[in-house]
């Protein structure tokens, strides 16, 4: 293993950073070495989504040192992301810093957050290789380093699916990170202003103000609903010159909100149509700079294109030499362990049960990730307490209760102060399903209590109240 | 005047945009033609800073159609900008959309906001040429258009001075726009995280966390104060691994806060030093990627460099063929008119009295710009009411009261809940001057009542309260 290098004697001149190797040449081989007997065992968490953050929140920092590796230093509260695109909520309200979720990360001398990507996993030697994320900042060189782990949790999430359609990455915007929402907002406001420039052609004006959403899942529907609320309430008032030119089209190959009850689906369809969202059944064949082309040859010019057709495993996950679940995710057993190796677990959208467990694949939902994170935190705390926290020390351990997922129901907002709540266990089961203002109220309340910190709960409430009183903010910063 | 073209007959197919010419080839010649007898006279405002926005707020939309041309659709509440860099205040809290300052801009059929730069002024024909701002968005072509005006107000502000020092534009960040504050915040948080990466050298860590501010005026001092508050309160807690490596240096060629009372200056110096800000007397000779070089040869490595050494006239202002005031600003008479031409006024940092008025040049302060905007709105309303609103119709008009500036005093925050308040009329005059917590309270109260909308007043109060309770937000989005 050429890229790993043990601690050098130079380390001693560091005080608070005593476990770093600091060889000057080549610096690329520095890293966190294996934990020593007097230190706490180290859990390395790859990723900072719902699964990873819920896990870190639950891990006991008295038992473990926690090291998180992720290209972003916050968790995104994804169910509310669509609301930030049009200014109903502020961007920061849906971002929770990891240091707030698990304060030990910034306080404990052996716990760290590294703004980096994991580039390789050496399961045999219990080491991961990482590279720091610098976003092209020229004054900082990208830095390679290694981290030895006692337990490794892979919670890297998934990436948007494009079905190999040409032009999606170049021209469409996804809706998964805060910077996506920022890009959508900037583009929407730019298009609104550009369409008002003197002398612009009718056709170009319609194109600029045509917002197309591909994918009729909860994200696509929520975004379409928010957008039509924004148009009805704010564009009419603040951009009255162009208010008759703006339109929203939602393109879906099958049914919208296919996981919901047929009655709820019908309700959502009616409601969206009433708010002015044009629902189109169609399959996208090609995406160009200013238009998309459907399978039947229809050309749809657009000014803003948002793509949300579900997620699939990333190239890094696919490249890992681990057992896989159907669909190409990292395979796990009933305790969320990767079966062929020691001390590696995987949770969230990047993982699934291996076929031999006989278990159904779980949907790529925040709810599943959150439950898995919570379960694994308890399991690791239990293992740690019973002295199984070190590398290779939990081989004959009794892992106890398996992870069992119980679906609590689905919710989706559809705009105009309306939402769907489907409390059935599965698509076939019977149970409560609701639509309308009461559901919308439940939807808001449920999210308010799930936003992690009190600070953000407070801000969500304040944002909602000010949007209600003053309208949405339209400054393009 | 080859680039101007009168309204074409094609215009008729437009309804809400009836005064646009819409020739298709070349489209570059489209624009707003001269106002007709049945229409309101048109005031064109170039810029959306303190001066332009205060003017638009005061103009009577029943008398005039208002057209604003600016590369940003909001006003920046500059005195609070330094607070947003470290998360004390949110970015949107200091940005006020123009459509909120003057709602007629988005409601009246003849009033517009154009996201564009003015590229030429034809004073003889009462027309300005503009080019839309697209920020490199590939799906929108830059668009040239013209606007005929009855009254033109040039309120384009100034640009940062660099004294021709090499490397300032490439490596330093100014602190004048919201995107500057965003860049500072992203860079500061990136440096904090990068300095925590395993294996990084001591020296590089110190460099990354060395924040250098050049210029000891109110902006530089306020930013240094905010930064040291952030370090003392938030970095110590949230980035405890690197807390001993972060430092702030303020470099000034002369005295800091030179416009203030000597007693206040001494107080500020003591206070900043106590908070850990290193004050250095020096002149910058050269700025390189990772270090600055002073006149005496000293090399100062930095991770973040903020430049605030005052402002001067922009290249566009310099290029205009108008009388100039000492210092190269657009020259105006006592009524803020540009003397050699009809119907052109200039206010704010881009303008100054011509020498023949015998008046002192006014400082480049928000206070001056705001007062000039207010005065000019009253003057234009008066002219409009007395039928002088049309182009060339106010030649023999009695302009009445001249603009007289009365300095209300200066304020500057210096961090640690302390501020300076200097209520003297001028540097030589006697009068009240205060320093400390009471001043800080006055400073906050004064700003709270000056932030324009109730929405933003509310958010400033909320932001300050949450920062006090929960600390600053550190998510890097």
Automatic annotation (TrEMBL), chains A, B:
Catalysed reactions, as listed in the record: a ubiquinone + NADH + H(+) = a ubiquinol + NAD(+); a quinone + NADH + H(+) = a quinol + NAD(+)
Every FAD/NAD(P)-binding domain range: 42-373
UniProt gene name: LOC106762983
Lineage per the UniProt record: Eukaryota, Viridiplantae, Streptophyta, Embryophyta, Tracheophyta
UniProt-listed Enzyme Commission number(s): 1.6.5.9
GO annotations of cellular component type: mitochondrial inner membrane; peroxisome
InterPro entries with a match to the protein in the record: FAD/NAD-bd_sf, FAD/NAD-binding_dom, NDH-2, NDH2-like_C
Organism of derivation: Vigna radiata var. radiata
Requisite cofactors: FAD
Domain External alternative NADH-ubiquinone oxidoreductase-like C-terminal positions: 407-473
GO molecular function: NADH dehydrogenase (quinone) (non-electrogenic) activity
Protein name in the entry: NADH:ubiquinone reductase (non-electrogenic)
Protein's job: Alternative NADH-ubiquinone oxidoreductase which catalyzes the oxidation of mitochondrial NADH does not translocate protons across the inner mitochondrial membrane.
Family annotation (Pfam families): NDH2_C (PF22366), Pyr_redox_2 (PF07992)
Subcellular location: Mitochondrion inner membrane; Peroxisome
Keywords per UniProt: FAD, Flavoprotein, Membrane, Mitochondrion, Mitochondrion inner membrane, NAD, NADP, Oxidoreductase, Peroxisome, Transit peptide
Membrane topology designation: Peripheral membrane protein
Protein family according to the UniProt entry: Belongs to the NADH dehydrogenase family.
């Amino acid at each position: 293993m050429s890229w790993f290098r043990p601690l050098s004697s130079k380390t001693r001149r560091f005080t608070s950073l005593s476990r770093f190797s600091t060889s000057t040449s080549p610096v690329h081989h520095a890293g966190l070495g294996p934990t020593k007997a007097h230190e706490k065992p180290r859990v390395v968490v790859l990723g900072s989504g719902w699964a990873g953050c819920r896990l870190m929140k639950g891990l006991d920092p008295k038992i473990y040192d926690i090291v998180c590796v992720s290209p972003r230093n916050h968790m995104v509260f994804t169910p509310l992301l669509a609301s930030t695109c049009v200014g109903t909520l502020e961007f920061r309200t849906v971002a929770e810093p990891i240091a707030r979720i698990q304060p030990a990360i910034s306080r404990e001398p052996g716990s760290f957050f590294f703004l980096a990507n994991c580039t390789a996993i050496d399961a045999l030697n219990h080491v991961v290789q990482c590279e720091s994320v610098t976003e092209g900042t020229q004054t900082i060189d990208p830095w390679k380093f290694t981290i030895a782990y006692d337990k490794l949790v892979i919670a890297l999430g998934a990436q948007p699916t494009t079905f190999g359609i040409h032009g999606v990455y170049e021209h469409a915007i996804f809706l998964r990170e805060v910077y996506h929402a920022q890009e959508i907002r900037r583009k929407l406001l730019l298009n609104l202003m550009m369409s008002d420039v003197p002398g612009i052609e009718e056709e170009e004006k319609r194109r600029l103000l045509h917002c197309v959403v591909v994918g009729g899942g909860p994200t696509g529907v929520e975004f379409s609903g928010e957008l039509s609320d924004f148009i009805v309430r704010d564009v009419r008032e603040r951009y009255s010159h162009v208010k008759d030119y703006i339109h929203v089209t939602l393109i879906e190959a099958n049914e919208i909100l296919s996981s919901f009850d047929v009655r709820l689906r019908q309700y959502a369809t009616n409601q969206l149509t009433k708010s002015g969202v044009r629902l189109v059944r169609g399959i996208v064949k090609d995406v160009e700079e200013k238009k998309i082309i459907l399978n039947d040859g229809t050309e749809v010019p657009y000014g803003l294109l948002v793509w949300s057709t579900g997620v699939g495993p990333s190239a890094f996950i696919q490249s890992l030499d681990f057992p896989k679940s159907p669909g190409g995710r990292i395979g796990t057993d009933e305790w969320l362990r990767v079966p062929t190796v020691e001390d590696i677990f995987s949770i969230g959208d990047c993982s699934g049960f291996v076929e031999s467990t006989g278990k159904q694949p779980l949907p790529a939902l925040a709810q599943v990730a959150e439950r898995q994170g919570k379960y694994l935190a308890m399991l690791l705390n239990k293992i740690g307490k019973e002295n199984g926290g070190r590398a290779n020390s939990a081989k004959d351990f009794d892992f106890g209760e398996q992870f069992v997922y119980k679906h609590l129901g689905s919710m989706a907002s559809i705009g105009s102060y309306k939402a769907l709540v489907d409390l059935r266990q599965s698509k076939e089961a019977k149970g409560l399903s609701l639509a309308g203002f009461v559901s919308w109220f439940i939807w808001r309340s449920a999210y308010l209590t799930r936003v992690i910190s009190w600070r953000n709960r407070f801000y969500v409430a304040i944002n909602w109240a000010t949007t209600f009183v003053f309208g949405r903010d339209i400054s393009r910063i």
